[in-house]
């Protein structure tokens, strides 16, 4: 009856359908047949994701107060039999957490081989089981290196740099830091941008041929490339791994962290499409590597760094990493092994 009244009032079929909550075809059929339309109760549609929603909620809850990216969760449930697309998972996960704040940072691009940005991340600080990560990102390719350690002493920092340059297959011309105490003693000690660097670090930099630079005070975002990767590392690698270990009553240690992160760098981070460059960092590294500076002999004070993995360990994990062209293959083999 209501449909007929609305129709006599001159309302369109679409307006009537919106008001009474049915389709336009139902309104048209009722007006033509002069009968009361029968509305069928629609059963809730079972989606492909329905069987995995509880798992997704549990994973995000176990990671609190952090959160696990949708891409990570999609890979996990795909191994469990999910056949839907990543967007489906992304849309569902978005309902579980607040929307992120917009990023106002203006980014500056650098030429291949020109700049590397380095930083420390503190994951856990304890007397007996601290966990930190040295992170370095090449400015052009966005390829990154990560090494977990138990302290942030100068000798550890130098060893991580040496391993990092081996990983990339060369040395950039400039490296950018914030206020690392093991890098800089006093800003502007000899004039504007004439800083007093730690002597041991400066000698290491001369040996490898790179120029250390500092980001602007209170403006860590001037090294935003490594800062953004730090967040990606935490969300996409650290939080999912520690949440899984926590559920099993285990805690992440340095050895396990490095075993997993080097595999993750190779299989996930370097193969992703970077949000800014829209390129894969691993592929862009092939462009950047030939213009990196050649690796010198190992820094004498390092000898065999305690933080470096053995050549055999890395041969087992990264035997098919492409060989660099800047230094003898025998040097590179110690770090990543021989291609078979």
Brief sketch in words of this structure:
This is Transposase. GO terms for molecular function: nucleic acid binding. This protein has helices at 2-8, 13-20, 24-33, 53-63, 70-79, 86-94, 154-168, 199-208, 224-247, 254-267, 281-288, 311-317, 329-336; strands spanning 115-124, 131-138, 144-149, 174-177, 184-186, 196-197, 211-214.
Provide an overview of this structure.
This protein is an alpha/beta fold. It has 13 helices and seven strands. It has helices at residues 2-8, 13-20, 24-33, 53-63, 70-79, 86-94, 154-168, 199-208, 224-247, 254-267, 281-288, 311-317, 329-336, and strands spanning 115-124, 131-138, 144-149, 174-177, 184-186, 196-197, 211-214. The chain has a five-stranded mixed beta sheet. The chain has a two-stranded antiparallel ribbon with strand order 5-6. The radius of gyration is 28 Å and the shape is elongated. Residues 305-340 have low confidence and may be disordered.
List key phrases describing it.
340 residues, alpha/beta, Nucleotidyltransferase, domain 5, five-stranded mixed sheet, two-stranded antiparallel ribbon, disordered C terminus, Integrase_cat-core, RNaseH-like_sf, Transposase, RNaseH_sf, nucleic acid binding
Q: Which oligomerization state do the chains in this entry correspond to?
A: single chain
Gross geometry: elongated
From N to C, what is the helix and strand string? HHHHHHEEEHEEEHEHHHHH
How much is the average pLDDT?
Answer: 79
Number of domains: 3
Rg, please? 28 Å
Distance between the termini: 80 Å
Number of strands: 7
Parts with pLDDT < 50 across at least 5 consecutive residues: 305-340
Q: Give the name of the CATH superfamily of the largest domain.
A: Ribonuclease H-like superfamily/Ribonuclease H
CATH-level-2 architecture of the largest domain: 2-Layer Sandwich
Q: What's the total helix number?
A: 13
Largest sheet descriptor: 5 strands, mixed
Structural class: alpha/beta
What is the CATH topology of the largest domain? Answer: Nucleotidyltransferase, domain 5
Strand order of the largest sheet: 3-2-1-4-7
Strand content: 5-15%
Approximately how much helix is present in the residues? 40-55%
Q: What is the CATH class of the largest domain?
A: Alpha Beta
